[in-house]
Amino acid sequence: EIINKNPNEVIMKLMDSGIMATINQDVEYDTAALIAADYNISLELEEVEEIDLAEVYELNAEDDPSTLVKRAPVVTVMGHVDHGKTSLLDAIRNTGVAVGEAGGITQHIGASEIMHRNEKIVFLDTPGHEAFTSLRARGAKITDIAILVVAADDGVMPQTIEAIDHSKAAGVPIIVAINKIDKPNANPDRVKQELSEKGVIIEEWGGDVIAVPVSAKTGEGLETLLEMVLLVAEVLELKANPDRPGVGTVIEAKVVKGRGTVASIILEKGTLTVGDPVVAGITYGKVKALYNDKGKKVKRIGPSTSVEIDGLAEVPQAGEKIYVTPDEKTARYIAEKNAITFREKSLNKNVGITLEDLFSKIKEGEIKELNIIIKADVHGSVEAIKQSLLKLSNEEVRVNIIHANVGAISESDVTLASASSAIIIGFNVRPSSNVQYLAEQEGVDIRTYRIIYDAINDVEAAMTGMLDPTF
Ligand code: GDP
């Protein structure tokens, strides 16, 4: 375009020099110079200044314990559909907004902040374990505490179990909110009973999980729930160094007319100020403006704060880390380096665990635990496969069943597998073509069987290096 020549003509010239190029291909400088000379076009090589990143990474090193101060918890609400996740979030936001504060309307910026007894709590706006785990599959660990909503008139349902397993796989503590207690047919004791059957033992029953009866409709119990969030946060001793270049995670990003790229982030540590140069994966820029969850412009933010950032060149991926860099040149340089790594990675995609390469990874000491997700058509098969697989653990590798349930293999299973480097075993169930496609994208190995013995046999063979190659 710049030299105003027909691409086919340029490709022909390249072919004459023995280079079989396509229209999308980069060519080396020397080759470009030959073609340029042919057209009488002067060509200049742009010098890319090497930047010593060691100094930049030094800035991102672990913080000295003496620099750490308390930070607010980041909470995700999870649970089965229609159990009241959205209602609960809305009710909490309303109680948390000081009376008289500009209408109290929260913007949707991916996360919102509330104050309870002068302490801040950050809530992720998108409830559900799917969002939680897809962020985790991208390497982002933002959630400190999960609130598991279970409707008292409905009890533990399939997505309740998924939410429990997704939080457990991430090592995130659960607080149970037994919701809808205003309903006449509410039965909180049944919820407690069913939870204990799923390994979630509440305090009242001698376990360590806090359960709070609430009603998103009447507001009953919400104060206690927030109290408990702060209590668990206290126990977790959440801390961050506020006096360092900011590091955060992108939770959402989009293009907004008149503003350009807008990224919602949660800052995890350090400070982020308007004017700071930042890099997020393969994109970078200078922070033009910061907006808080009330839509107000802010100048500077600290740890555990959610904001929208204007000023990135392109839309970053959700789950991408965002870093403040010493200057814009460095931000651009890191983004370019990331782009190269990204391209290399997408060339050899299969990053997950497969039964085929399991044995070599065990031998190399790369894995010590084999994470497995089991899906089957009936409960009896789930249990039978689970028990048999657990028995395969040996000194070198431990079998870990991170999720086992009745039902088809879902996108949520694939995301969990991707986030936890797990394989999926399906018995008399299959993934839909969408799910299969996602699994291929994420490099997740799905194995489906019709005979239990075959499933057990394959895993055992893979663990001992005796698996026959399939295709
Ligand atoms: P989500 O799918 O988990 O986000 O559930 P929603 O928040 O959309 O709630 C599902 C339905 O339950 C809606 O009709 C709500 O009005 C209702 N609901 C939610 N919480 C309560 C509650 O505490 N009491 C009663 N009676 N209804 C509730």
Structure description:
- It comes from Fusibacter paucivorans.
- This is Translation initiation factor IF-2.
- The structure is a single chain.
- With 471 residues, the chain is α/β, with parallel strands linked by helices.
- It is built from 14 helices and 21 strands.
- 34% of the residues lie in helices and 25% in strands.
- The radius of gyration is 26 Å and the shape is globular.
- Mean pLDDT is 89; it is low at 96-104.
- Guanosine-5'-diphosphate is lined by residues 79, 81-87, 127, 179-180, 182-183, 215-217.
- Guanosine-5'-diphosphate binds at residues 79, 81-87, 127, 179-180, 182-183, 215-217.
- Spatial sequence of strands, sheet with the most strands: 3-4-2-5-6-7
Shape: globular
Low-confidence stretches: 96-104
- The total strand number stands at 21
Quaternary arrangement of the chains shown? single chain
Bound molecules: guanosine-5'-diphosphate
Structural class: alpha/beta
> Overall mean pLDDT score?
89
Largest sheet: 6 strands, mixed
How many whole angstroms does the radius of gyration measure?
26 Å
Strand content: 15-25%
How far apart are the termini? 46 Å
Percentage of helical residues?
25-40%
**Count of discrete alpha- or pi-helical segments spanning 4 or more residues:** 14
Protein name: Translation initiation factor IF-2
Region (G-domain): 73-221
Domain Tr-type G: 70-239
Subcellular location: Cytoplasm
Structure, briefly:
Residues 73-221 are annotated as: G-domain. This protein has helices at residues 7-16, 29-38, 53-59, 85-96, 129-137, 158-170, 188-197, 222-236, 328-347, 355-363, 379-390, 411-420, 433-442, 452-464, and strands at 69-70, 74-79, 111-116, 119-124, 145-151, 174-179, 210-213, 239-240, 247-256, 260-269, 272-273, 277-280, 283-291, 297-298, 300-301, 305-312, 321-324, 369-376, 398-406, 422-427, 446-449.
